[in-house]
Amino acid sequence: MAKCNICGKVGLKGSKGVHMHQVKAGELGNNNNNVQKTYAPDLATFSSQTSQRRPSKTTDETYERFYQLVEWARAAVDVIQRAAVSSGYRIARKKDKRVKKRTLEAIEEFFEAPNSEDHIEDMIGDAICDLETFGNAYWEVRVDNSAMPKFLNDLRKGRFDSSKDTYPFELYVINAKTVTIEFDSRGITGYVQNVSGNKVSFTPSQIIHFKLSGAGMDVYGLSPMKSLQNAMASDILGSNYNSKFFENDATPRLHIDLGNVTPEQVQAFATRVEAKLKGEPHKNLVTSGNVTVNPIGVNNKDMEFQTYLDKLMQRIFAVYGVPAAIFGIGDIREMEEQVTLFTSLTVKPIQNLVARRITRKVLRVL
Question: Domain check: are 266 and 219 in the same one?
Answer without folding.
Answer: no
